[in-house]
Specification:
The chain has four helices and no strands. It is mostly helical. The mean pLDDT is 77.
Length: 70
């Protein structure tokens, strides 16, 4: 599993709804947790520019398309 897949899989743990909190507070907390979870990921994946992000998105989309045809 790639580093990107590991972090993506961890997002479910970062986003947890707690009924006693308002949806806005929950969303803010979730965003902070997501930001923390992704801290350093860009470096690990070698992402330095917007073009690198575009290339990553293209790779992910191509991979998903291959998986659908299998």
């Amino acid at each position: 599993m790639s580093s990107f897949e590991n972090y993506k899989a961890g997002l479910g743990d970062a986003i947890a709804y707690e009924p006693e909190q308002s949806p806005v507070n929950t969303a803010v907390r979730a965003m902070k947790e997501i930001q923390e979870a992704f801290r350093g990921v860009a470096e690990e994946l070698g992402i330095e520019t917007e073009e690198d992000i575009v290339e990553l998105v293209k790779e992910v989309r191509a991979e998903r398309a291959r998986e659908k045809t299998e």
